[in-house]
Design goal:
heterodimer, A: alpha+beta, FAD/NAD(P)-binding domain, D-Amino Acid Oxidase, Chain A, domain 2, four-stranded antiparallel beta sheet, 24% strand, B: mainly beta, five-stranded mixed beta sheet, 1 helix, 7 strands, globular
Chain lengths: 372, 98
């Protein structure tokens, strides 16, 4: 491999890197994606596949706004991907539910939703609080302990494996270069841009986007940024395929388009361990059965653990280097929900060479402020 | 046909056989093979329907991975026929709705 110069070098072929690359390629830029191999920690292959709005950003208005905007333009991304890659990512947006199991939980949820959608950043018709009878009409299989639910019309879901495949397919079809099996430890800034030495030659570009998930923590200092992201494990339990039972997703139980039901709601601080634990999976199953008792009839066929990419406050980090112009680092744990923002808005900003003022709330300065 | 199984029984000397029931029909098979292999051998290419699309499905990987061969065995649903040895008197039913 000789030095083939690109406009943009994207480090990381997960959902963020592939979305940004897709957006850049659609602007006719020359893009190279450098990716690890199949054994990489890859949130893009382990996630739950939700486009989720209702609980996001109650303490961070810009994040609530970004999430809502992303959910609103998701249909466009699904359509664009279908057009370019030929793959249907299984996007559905009929709304989502959060079940409440006690009256106190219901009241608390109602207050949160009122705060979010009526007071803080008004979007009055986005949500409804549903009494048990109404929930049962939408999802007849709910258990006797469900007293009600919050419903948000912006929530939805995709098949996340097909989403990643569609993004990669679209990038290749648009002429992107994809180089897997490369472990990047540092990017070298140079007067002419950025260089990346690899075992089979050197890559260079005018701009570089770090989208390496947890790897951003290690890579960011090489372009003058600090990206203090850490892993947070989630475990997911998968059932055998079933006839359609759940027409709407919750944030912890959903049915995939081909029939399997996936269940997961663990948040575990266990470093880089991607394993599963029977005790945690047992708790996940028990909580799911309290919501949907008929799940007991389905066999669990597999389980996995995956690592979320968590910033110190859990919110997205969209950074650009002040010292090395043209270097960006993007780290989020909502790679599915925010995919359209990454493909359209972030890619547009990288193409222009600078992040817009509207994304300033997502740079690292808020972390310094919080620490002070 | 597109969905025909590519698995074929190798020429083998006649062995001890077992007999089990599939949807009320008697199926005879050499002792030691799986329920899924026995079904394919007896000409049953379909043992279930896809729960969402209703498309016909049958044994595919024969090694416990694809879950295409799930059937009901002795009253227990969602059993992988390729992981269970055919034995005398076993009652097997196709799973037609997951």
């Amino acid at each position: 491999m000789t030095d083939t110069r690109s406009d943009v070098l994207v480090i990381g072929g997960g959902l963020i890197g592939a979305c940004v690359a897709f957006g850049l390629l659609r602007k006719n830029l020359k893009v190279t994606i450098v990716d690890q191999g199949d054994n990489a920690h890859r949130a893009a292959r382990g996630n739950f596949g939700l486009v989720w709005v209702q609980s996001k950003g109650s303490t961070f208005r810009s994040y609530a706004a970004l999430t809502r905007r992303s959910a609103e333009i998701w249909p466009q991304l699904a359509e664009d991907l279908r057009e370019v890659s030929g793959i249907d990512v299984g996007f559905q947006q009929a709304g989502g539910l959060t079940f409440c199991h006690t009256e106190a939980e219901f009241a608390q949820r109602r207050d949160l939703m009122r705060h979010q959608f009526d007071a803080d950043l008004p979007y009055p018709d986005a949500y409804r609080m549903l009494e048990r009878d109404e929930v049962a009409r939408m999802v007849p299989v709910i258990g006797p302990g469900v007293v009600g639910a919050s419903y948000c019309k912006l929530d939805g879901c995709v098949n996340s494996l097909r989403l990643l495949r569609a993004l990669h397919g679209a990038c290749l079809r648009l002429g992107g270069r994809y180089l897997p099996g490369i472990d990047v430890t540092a990017v070298q800034p140079s007067p002419a841009g950025f260089t990346l030495p690899t075992a089979s030659g050197s890559l260079s570009a005018d701009r570089v986007v770090l989208a390496a998930g947890l790897g951003n923590a290690r890579l960011a200092p090489s372009v003058g940024l600090e990206t203090p992201v850490k892993p947070m494990r989630g475990q997911i339990l998968v059932t055998a395929r079933s006839a359609p039972l759940l027409s709407l997703p919750t944030h912890v139980i959903r049915q995939m388009d081909e029939g399997t039901i996936i269940i997961g709601d663990s948040q575990e601080d266990v470093g880089f361990d991607e394993g599963t634990e029977l005790g945690v999976l047992g708790n996940i199953a028990a909580r799911a059965l309290a919501s949907i008792p008929v799940l007991a009839k389905l066999r669990a066929v597999r389980a996995w653990g995956a690592l979320r990419v968590m910033s110190p406050d859990g919110f997205p980090l969209y950074q650009q280097s002040a010292r090395h112009h043209g270097a960006f680092a993007f780290s989020v744990h909502s790679g599915v929900t925010l995919a359209p923002i990454h493909a359209f808005q972030l890619a547009g900003a990288v193409a222009l060479g600078a992040l817009p003022e509207s994304l300033a709330p997502f740079n690292e300065e808020r972390l310094a402020f919080q620490a002070a | 046909m597109k969905n025909d199984s590519r698995f074929r029984q190798l020429e083998a000397e006649e062995r001890d056989t077992v007999e089990f029931e599939f949807d009320g029909q008697r199926v005879r098979a050499p002792r030691g093979i799986s329920v899924a292999a026995a079904l394919l051998r007896a000409g049953y290419a379909q043992c279930r329907s896809a729960p969402v699309s209703g498309a016909p499905r049958g044994p595919y990987c024969l090694m416990g991975v694809c879950f295409e061969c799930v059937v009901e065995i002795e009253g227990l649903g969602t059993r992988q026929a390729c992981l269970i040895e055919a034995s005398d008197g076993l009652r097997v039913r196709s799973s037609l709705s997951g």
